[in-house]
Amino acid sequence: MILVGLTGGIGSGKSTVSALLAGHGAVVIDADQVTRSVQQPGSPVVAQLAERFGSAVVRADGSLDRQAVADIVFTDQAALADLNAIVHPAVGREMVRLVTEQVPTDHVVVLDIPLLTERPRSGLQGIVVVDVPVEVQVERLVHGRGFDEADSRARIARQASRDQRLATATWVIDNSGPPGELDPQVDQLWDTLRALPQLPADFVYAPERAADR
């Protein structure tokens, strides 16, 4: 197994790069998808969230009302900390399980983690950062996702800065240009990733050792 991280700010096009890598044959473990999977109706995570934030955060069908939770924690740091304390451990355990399944293979495994800069992981052979200027992020959020400009800038400000992400990068994908400029970069990146050494068969993924916290 080859194990690398992938990150980028909101509106950077990280998901597009992730999909292109998957098209090359990478096994992508998407932290957002894992988060959704541990928040399925009837899950312990949903029960704990309902206990902490009230039954109004659970819809009639048992699914989590993510917007209701977001509205609660948006301006309440203590509530946000409680949310993270419930969700992050469950997500971490599931990601460890998914990575561990891949250890005996020769796959390139890509951990797609939006907050990788904010919450570093041990054991990665490198980090891919999808990079765009802040003004490009704002433009894409406003025109592509329908956010207003103030909301876009607030969301960007809550994440690590562009400079902070770039400081962690082993490889940088510049996604500020037209779509046609992205494919050749990802093609080259794929060749680079495939050339990395395979991790040993006894590799143990322990992503959050004390030194990384």
How would you briefly describe this protein structure?
The protein has 213 residues and is an alpha/beta fold.
| DSSP strand count | 5
**Radius of gyration (Å):** 18 Å
Order of strands, widest sheet: 2-3-1-4-5
* Helix/strand class: alpha/beta
Average pLDDT for all residues: 92
Topology order in helix (H) and strand (E) letters: EHEHHHHEEHHHEH
Give the percentage of residues in beta strands: 5-15%
* Termini Cα gap: 25 Å
Tell me, briefly, the overall form.
globular
Characterize the quaternary organization of these chains.
Answer: single chain
Low-confidence residue ranges: 209-213
Helices, by number, come to 9
Task: Tell me what the structure shows.
- With 213 residues, the chain is of the alpha/beta class.
- Helix content is 49%, strand content 12%.
- The chain has a 5-stranded parallel β-sheet with strand order 2-3-1-4-5, sandwiched between helices.
- The longest helix has 26 residues.
- The chain is globular and about 50 Å long.
- It starts with a strand and ends in a 19-residue tail after the last helix.
- The C terminus is likely disordered.
What key phrases describe this protein's structure?
globular, 5-stranded parallel beta sheet, 12% strand, 5 strands, alpha/beta, 213 residues
